[in-house]
Amino acid sequence: MTRLGATTGSSWGTAVxxxxxxxxxxxxxxxxxxxxxPFDLVTGVVSAAVVxxxxxxxxxxxxxxxxxxxxxxxxxxxxPVLLAAVVRSNLAxxxxxxxxxxxxxxxxxxxxxxxxxxxxxxxxxxxxxxPGTLTLDVVDDELVVHALTEASRTELLEGSLARWVxxxxxxxxxxxxxxxxxx
Length: 183
Fold this sequence. Notes:
By secondary structure, this protein is mostly helical.
């Protein structure tokens, strides 16, 4: 029996997954703390080790490689785009809530889902982080999404977030399919 998300393989692959998980955790810890403080360095190493042991088998869908570094760099480009979408949606939703007519038009829509688990999770969570939309389920090859307004539905169906997720994950087939469906 294998743990959830863990792939059977060599001990080298396991060591790379654990080491990568620890390195990412340590980097994140230092980004939040003070990288010059000895206490933060020590507690960061301990925290990273605990995270690596607990989540090392599920943090990566496959063993990290040089290609994984490209995904991490593309994710760094995607993060400001996602934050801008969240701010834009917050402002739009605030305008809807403050409008005395309360122009809410809730509906459930289906959005094409990427193939890989990582891409599906990234897209579903990106949609859910955007105010006014909530990913309810994944059914077959689609995400079932509740959208609060017509504007949020339109933006969702245009596929901007989906294209960015395809950019991050490198799923070009999904990117082309999503463009075709948006037309």
